[in-house]
Specification:
Elements lengths: L3 E5 L7 E3 L8 H8 E2 L7 E2 L7 E3 L7 E2 L7 H9 L1 E3 L4 E6 L4 E7 L11 E7 L4 H11 L1 H9 L5 E2 L7
Parallel strand pairs: 8-11
Antiparallel strand pairs: 1-2, 1-10, 3-4, 5-6, 5-7, 8-9, 9-10
Length: 162
């Protein structure tokens, strides 16, 4: 069976990892799923590192995500010099922890503060359509909250990256 998880707020503030139905996943899955390494081999936490950001003119503009930078220093500096894409605009990532993820900025799941984000993770390599189908099947309340707020999920492609 392919494992599917949701990382984000669940009708209240605080970002956590959830299994289908809002259950807490087994401890063995939690560490393996919420950490990945995309740039320099350093482990990165999912929280906000995969959602799309727009670099400021000082850094040449364009699409960026914190997991893309080669060093912690770049992630910190570019993070301060970038802004969130619109809620619902997502990126798809194939992570080295064995999961495919889609991630977006999302203040519709119970926390309205900036930097709130949602991520769906599906074990293996998957298309965007498969990721959205898994979201629909396993976490329908996430879609209901987005719809109620008038937010539509739209993929941003990495071809426009720096």
């Amino acid at each position: 069976m392919i494992r599917c998880f949701y990382f984000g707020c669940w009708n209240q503030s605080g970002h956590y990892l959830f299994a289908p139905g809002g259950h807490e996943p087994p401890y063995a899955d939690r560490e393996r799923v919420v950490y990945y390494s995309e740039s320099d081999g350093e482990l990165l936490h999912l929280d906000g590192t995969l959602a799309p950001r727009r670099l400021g003119a000082r850094f040449g503009g364009g699409l960026w995500w914190q997991g893309k930078s080669a060093t912690r220093r770049e992630r910190d500096i570019w993070g301060m010099g970038s802004g969130e894409y619109r809620q619902g605009q997502f990126l798809r990532h194939e992570l080295d922890n064995g999961f495919t993820a889609i991630s977006w900025w999302d203040r519709t799941q119970g926390d309205k503060r900036g930097a709130c984000n949602s991520t769906i993770l599906l074990e293996g390599v998957h298309t965007t359509e498969e990721m959205l189908a898994a979201l629909t099947k396993h976490f329908p309340h996430v879609l209901e909250n987005l719809k109620r707020a008038g937010v539509e999920l739209v993929e941003i492609t990495k071809e426009s990256t720096k």
